[in-house]
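User: Here's a structure from my thesis project, written as structure tokens. My advisor, Dr. K., wants to see whether a designed sequence matches the one we expressed. Can you design one independently, without my sequence as a hint?
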């Protein structure tokens, strides 16, 4: 196995991080591939090189299609991390947005939408640092991906199962992340205004004047 040698200083760290945030699906040219590899650990590069070599060496014979059970297992495996991502994103956005609206909003008179946008900024920043922890927790659940070959993993139905699992996972996570709304009192304060009829006021004034006479 030949080692992979990459000039770590030739790629800006911010550009490599941008490629990682976009995901492997966005590696469409040589520069994007280089940016992606820069942020990998040495052991991860070796694993990636091993799988790429195995993928290229697979004969172009007809592969057996993945079974429905394997696709469901793959969708569940892909959904679990996104449940965590969706939960943290909505949870932190609501909590941070509420505190920003109450604290900063009372001083600078910002709108509710501006507070929500600032809360979403805080949530996105926290999501960058928590991505690795969410993936580790998802792995500890014990759901493993199915044993698919390289050709099976590259099939259209396999990609559909992966993306569908991600969509379902992040939807469930976002819905669960709305739980802070259950603890917030959003009922507007009501002011009771007593309205007295002018006829009643005039009648009362006449009674008072007659009593004085």
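Assistant: Designed independently from the structure alone:
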């Amino acid at each position: 196995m030949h080692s992979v040698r990459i000039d770590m200083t030739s790629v800006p760290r911010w550009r490599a991080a941008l490629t990682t945030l976009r995901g492997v699906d966005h590696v469409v040219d040589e520069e994007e591939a280089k940016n992606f590899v820069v942020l990998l650990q040495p052991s991860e590069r070796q694993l990636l090189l091993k799988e790429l070599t195995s993928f290229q060496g697979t004969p172009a014979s007809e592969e057996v299609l993945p079974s429905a059970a394997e696709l469901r297992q793959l969708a569940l495996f892909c959904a679990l991390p996104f449940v965590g991502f969706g939960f943290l994103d909505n949870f932190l956005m609501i909590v941070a947005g509420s505190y920003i609206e109450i604290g900063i909003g009372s001083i600078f008179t910002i709108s509710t939408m501006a507070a929500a946008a600032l809360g979403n900024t805080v949530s996105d920043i926290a999501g960058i640092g928590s991505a690795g922890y969410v993936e580790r927790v998802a792995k500890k659940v014990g759901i493993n991906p199915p044993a698919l070959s390289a050709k099976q993993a590259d099939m259209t139905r396999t990609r559909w199962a992966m993306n569908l699992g991600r969509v379902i996972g992040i939807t469930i996570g976002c819905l669960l992340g709305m739980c802070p709304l259950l603890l917030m009192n959003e009922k507007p304060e009501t002011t009771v205004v007593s309205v007295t009829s002018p006829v009643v006021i005039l009648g009362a004034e006449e009674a008072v004047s007659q009593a004085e006479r």
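When you compare it with your expressed construct, this may help: The two ends are 117 Å apart (CA to CA).
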